[in-house]
Write a structure and sequence with these properties.
By secondary structure, the protein is of the alpha+beta class.
């Protein structure tokens, strides 16, 4: 019988196994099943097309290159996001939660959340294209200062079995 970690694929499973401490056991593992909403990606793509047209029609060369680059970036957003989702892994062990995420230039960031961080888990339910893909939020990261302050929720985003995972966390 396959273990929970084998669902991640060989590369991500190896990365999670590398993070495990002696005697630590993975009780659940998955990858995110959804990213940004389709409407956002459609608007980004439309903006990308408009930026490319403006870039082509602009007489000032430097400004035209800028618009072309921005346009291509926005058109590529769905593909970029899909690649990032494929390289993201979530694991819940008998001791902590582990998140493996891609960063710039092909590196990976691995974060770990112990029992104290998992004490106040928040579940958000989202019906997503006929299936239930929910979020389990267990931390908020704040970066910057003053007007540059940003807050980002951290957790298992876009997972199919959030209710069961929440129960595993509470055990």
């Amino acid at each position: 019988m396959a273990s929970a970690i084998d669902r991640l694929g060989p590369e991500l499973a190896a990365r999670v196994r590398h993070e495990l401490q002696a005697g630590e056991e993975v009780v659940w593992a998955s990858r995110p099943q959804r990213g940004a909403p389709a409407w956002f990606l459609a608007v980004a793509g439309l903006f990308g097309v408009i930026a490319i047209i403006v870039g082509i029609l602009t007489l000032v060369f430097v400004v035209g290159i800028f618009f072309l680059a921005i346009g291509l970036l926005f058109i590529m957003l769905p593909r970029i996001q899909a690649g990032m989702l494929k390289r993201t892994a979530y694991a819940l062990t008998d001791r902590r939660a582990i998140i493996v995420e891609p960063t710039m230039f092909g590196y990976r960031s691995t974060r770990s959340f112990g029992p104290a961080a998992l004490g106040s888990v928040q579940r958000r339910d989202y019906p997503w294209r006929g299936q239930q893909l929910d979020d389990l939020i267990f931390a908020r990261e704040v970066t910057g200062q003053g007007e540059s302050t940003r807050s980002q929720e951290v957790g298992f985003i876009g997972i199919a079995d959030a209710r069961q995972v929440e129960e595993l966390i509470r055990q």
